Amino acid sequence: MPTKPNQIRWIIALGAVALVGVLAYSTMQQTRQQFEVCVQFKGGSHCATASGSSQDQAIRSAQEIDCELLANGRDENMVCLANPPSSVRPVK
Q1: Are strands 33-41 and 44-52 parallel, antiparallel or unpaired?
Q2: Three-state DSSP class for 53?
């Protein structure tokens, strides 16, 4: 017995709703932690805020933003990232 066009529409609609739900859930999980991180490098300092699914991920993302703006070139960026941040605070 062939499926009716109405049944196919319902299946597609349910699939679309499920996809939107999964995307919304995964987006919310990735931004659970938010931190402001300040980095000092070669006489300059910068503070950036970043979100992540874990504390370590959020801090690392903010530190990468800071170092990208403070360092001159890839080698300096790697040295900057190897140093611990000067301050870390959670953002509510």
Answers
A1: antiparallel
A2: coil
Its domain, for residue 74, covers 33-90
- Angle subtended at Cα 5 by Cα 18 and Cα 20, rounded to the nearest 5 degrees: 15
CA dihedral 54, 56, 60, 62 (to 10 degrees): 60
Are residues 18 and 41 located together in one domain of the fold? no
On the CB side of 14, CA atoms within 13 Å amount to 6
* pLDDT value for 31: 61
Average pLDDT for the chain: 90
Residues 44 and 65 in one domain: yes
55 shares its domain with 84: yes
Q: Which residues pair with 33 in a beta bridge?
A: 52
Q: How far apart are CA 28 and CA 23, in angstroms?
A: 9
Does one domain contain both 42 and 25? no
Q: What is the pTM of this model?
A: 0.67
